Amino acid sequence: MGALLSKITATDLASTLTGDPEALHVHLTLVARDVSIKGHTVKIHCHCLTVDGNGRVQPHRLAEFMRNAVVDYAIPRSKVADAKARDLKYNSTEATTELVERAKRSFTDLANTGEGGEMLLFLLAERFLKLPQILCKMDLKTDTRMHYHGADGVYAGVTPSGTLKLYWGESKIYKKVGDAIRDCLASLAPFLIEPEHEDAERERDLILLSDKADLTNSELTGALKRYFDRSSEMSTRVQYCGVALVGFDAPFYPASDVKVLADQIVDGSRRALSDWSDKIGARLAAEKLSDMEIQLFCIPLPSADGFRAAFLKAMGIKGG
Predict the structure, then answer these.
(1) pLDDT digit string, tens, across residues 76-128
(2) Secondary element (H or E) of residue 20
(3) Does the first or last residue of the chain, that is N or C, have fewer Cβ atoms within 10 Å of its Cβ?
(4) Sequence-separated (6 or more) residues with CB below 8 Å from residue 48
């Protein structure tokens, strides 16, 4: 065991990131990033849906883009690497294709599913914030019609001194912005502020991380798992942070048969961002999260229900 890395670096984590960051811009337009709120350590990042050359917003294209990353999200990295190696050996795509079908089957068919929001959070965490997912929750599900109990995702960053920044993920996509912010931060709070004990909300995920954490490379994975080994000094060098996503209906999107200029959607988002920030600040204070590092994505949508329906359709799932 002496050959294990002593600590993980930012370069190590960056080497495990998935996907092309530029592909995000095809479907999501950045409105603002790193927006701060006085008295809090949150950073808000706002994206709206992109307007195409015909003046249309295309939520179905966003859903299809998400679907194409389903293996990156739902299958552990080491299993993807093994499948790619097998396909290379036999000049085939059989093993990778099997993972695609396996990944798609892990999603629920419930009409009110939040899994689309969780997957969008994954794409933004990895491709926008450069925080790799280190626990693949979809691979842990035993029933496709049940949601996994725990955080909506677990992501990692690292400080120059080698402290692991563990980002607990939470996403909510609702019709009303206030409801999404309230429930998202209420769900996230226990993972960040509960004292360490066996009944803490985060405890199950921490136990899973000690066994299931995955950075593809066995040496990197071994170094990562030392942070979750309570007999290791590295377990004292973990900082809890949050990464969150709230999606909600926004009135400045046009009706489906009306053309719009991209600037109209961006300007509408910018004007509303101050109000959204006020709501976020109030909830952070109510949940005692003001001192916790949280990266929070605001995603105004034409329709929260429409987003869920588009995601289920792209996945080939009939909502139940």
Answers:
(1) 999 999 999 999 999 999 999 999 999 988 887 666 678 899 999 999 999 99
(2) none
(3) N
(4) 28, 29, 31, 250, 265, 266, 268, 269, 299, 300
Domain ranges in the chain are 10-314
For the segment 13-22, what is each residue's pLDDT rounded down to a tens digit? 999 999 999 9
The sign one gets for the Cα dihedral 137, 295, 171, 168 is positive
Q: Are 75 and 141 in contact (CB under 8 A)?
A: no
Pairing of strands 294-301, 238-249: parallel
Answer yes or no: are the C-beta atoms of 296 and 42 closer than 8 Å: yes
Contact (CB, 8 A) for 277 and 35 = yes
CB 296 within 8 A of CB 181: no
C-alpha pair distances (Å), 296 with each of 60, 188, 250: 24, 11, 17
222 Cβ partners below 8 Å, 6+ apart?
1, 4, 5
What count of other Cβ atoms lies within 10 Å of the Cβ of residue 54? 7
Dihedral sign, Cα of residue 152, residue 105, residue 21, residue 251: negative
Q: Which residue has the higher pLDDT, 149 or 24?
A: 24
